[in-house]
Design a protein that fits this description.
This protein is α/β, with parallel strands linked by helices. Helices cover 38% and strands 26% of the residues. It folds into 2 domains: 1-94 and 172-256, Rossmann fold; 103-170, no CATH class. It binds adenosine-5'-triphosphate (ATP) and magnesium ion (MG). Residues 10-252 form the ABC transporter domain.
Length: 256
Amino acid sequence: MVCVQAPVVLHAEQIHKSFGEDEILAGVSIEVREGELVSIIGPSGCGKSTFLRCLNFLERPDRGRVSVLGVSIARDGGPWRRADEHAAHKLRTHVGMVFQSFNLFPHLTVLDNVLLAPRVVKGERNATMRDEAMALLEKVGLRQVADRYPVSLSGGQQQRAAIARALAMRPEIMLYDEPTSALDPIVAEEVLGVMRTLDDEGMTQIVVTHDMRFARLASDMVIYMDAGQVVEAAPPEALFVNPQDERTRRFLRTVL
Ligand SMILES: Nc1ncnc2c1ncn2[C@@H]1O[C@H](COP(=O)(O)OP(=O)(O)OP(=O)(O)O)[C@@H](O)[C@H]1O
Ligand SMILES: [Mg+2]
């Protein structure tokens, strides 16, 4: 859900990334407005995850610029400097990330998973955070299992716990890399429901997904990537019904 006048909160400009001789991202640019839900789709290996990771500098772009809510990091092929690390740290305070494989800490309860990052990173006290963490668990439908360990939860519950954990840092933007592809369709729907709720509340979200139904029904904007480039970016009905580029058409024919 996005209002036309909403400000741009994330801007990636001409992101380049190579691994060895292979150029994986060949100048990827996107602009995301506050409250937008953007899906990134495209064939396996086209660079979607690499691009998403570049947005919060889990992967360092070789060249290009990422700007998030007033924090801007430009790369020109030079070395990664202390100032870049400082800026990346600041940028990450605005950006939460959720992975396909949940990445919860197995030795901590669901509640402690949610409490850990604010405690360590922001130095906040358990007492002040606990109510907020329980409210987040309520929001994702996990209040009843707050004291259980991840191993005793279903995949869908674990992923919702991972979302609550990311939200505990109070990010303005959430990134998801195939959040439902390890899940069967019914529990996947619970996770997608949480993302829709966040969308209704105005959260800005960028989702790499192979779930074309979700991309079509829930997104404000769909980006089709191929071979390290953005081929086409359009609202879902335009992209799915009337794709402009032959590569998009071919991809959609194979997956729909
Ligand atoms: N750390 C790395 N070192 C070397 N090559 C890498 C690394 N990370 C990714 N790659 C390569 O970059 C290419 C793009 O990978 P990426 O994971 O971004 O694709 P993807 O679009 O997310 O694919 P999928 O849909 O299968 O998840 C692949 O060829 C991959 O092997
Ligand atoms: Mg991927």
